[in-house]
Specification:
The chain is built from 14 helices and 15 strands. It has 407 residues and is an alpha/beta fold. It folds into 2 domains: 134 residues, Alpha-Beta Complex (Aspartate Aminotransferase, domain 1), CATH 3.90.1150; 251 residues, 3-Layer(aba) Sandwich (Aspartate Aminotransferase, domain 2), CATH 3.40.640.10. A 7-stranded mixed beta sheet has the order 2-8-7-6-5-3-4, sandwiched between helices. It has a 4-stranded antiparallel beta sheet with strand order 11-12-15-14, covered by helices on one side. It is globular. The termini are far apart. The protein binds pyridoxal-5'-phosphate (PLP). Pyridoxal-5'-phosphate binds next to α5.
Length: 407
Amino acid sequence: MNCAAPSPVPEVKLIDVARTRRDTPACEKVVHFNNAGASLMPNLVLDTCIEHLWLEARIGGYEAAEEAQARHEAIYRSIATLLHASPEEIALADSATRAWHLAFQGLQTPRGAKILTTRTSYASNFIAFLHRARKDGLEIDVAPCDDAGDLDLDAFEQRIDGRVALIALTHIPTNGGIINPAEAVGKIARKYGVPYLLDACQSAGQLPLDVTRIGCDMLSSTGRKFLRAPRGTGFLYVRRAFLDRLEPPMPDLHSATWTTPDDYRPHEGMRAFEMWESNLAMKLGLGAAVDYALDLGLDAIRGRIRDLADLLRRRLHALNGIRVRDTGTEQGGIVTFDIANVAASIVKSRLREQSMHITVSLPSHTLLDAMERNLPKMVRASVHYYNTEEEIDRFCEAVHAISSKDA
Ligand SMILES: Cc1ncc(COP(=O)(O)O)c(C=O)c1O
């Protein structure tokens, strides 16, 4: 007889929605389904920013920075915890695109090298590919998706050859619902030793992220979306062993020392990707937002967002005249749809009159995907854990009314 004690069932942590709503008083005033644009900040984040601005006002910006030095350092530790990285692998930036560019422009590639990417690439990233294609003769190769919209991993792998100098993946695209298989792509990147840059702008704060499991060399994100930090914040992760493959593209006196009239010495480590001037109040807000997310738990956050988004998709599917445009086997908190005969901009303004927030997703934001699927301008409704089932009901009633009135 086996008398071993049963192993304890791991406790499933759930989001205390009421608490998160108390922490976010605006929740009671608006139905905020624009979290993929910018989430509502918890009070704690707002207070952190404002307190630092008051300190700057009282004693001066440089002096306030000196007093906040320990808390400034703690931001790197918080982001490292979020990503399962080390603080020395993190640089702070003022947007996801800026962070992404620091890596992309810093990567030295020979003329004629290829970038391997996918159909759901974010517009700014693809514009940067085109820019480097013109400037440095890089080639862009776009791997196909299958009928479900999922990346075809076999086809992706088959496209790797000696010329592929970068794999660039958008983890959660700006629209379309899908979560791309970052870990499976990482396995391919590792197998062939190809540098891998992950755009985690919509996944940081929405999904648990572990850079070692994902296998990426570089990862960029913003603070303002699912992490609930203030606008104007972002960060870049670069794997320590990969760092010497990058050349910081915008050296200044913070990232390098001017040593002789005709020479300078770049500083070592990730701080070489930052510049001297920055908005410390907002950065401290980013640190507070990351700590808030870590306290709630990323698994719990992921579960709650997935449940709410699934519910929203099901409810919208049930409405006449609404076409939910999401694809993919694994989906996140971004729900995109259109209403027959009603322009997305009209839907946006009608909803806004009722204090319901969405955004309009343009075909040019994900042009390749939009062309492939013949997508119109779409309504993008993105939920967060602090949203409720009752808000989804009210939202769907409003969408139904808009579609019926204009039918
Ligand atoms: C997938 C994705 N990547 C990058 C970005 C750019 O982020 P930022 O505006 O912070 O530069 C966005 C913004 O919506 C996005 O959705």
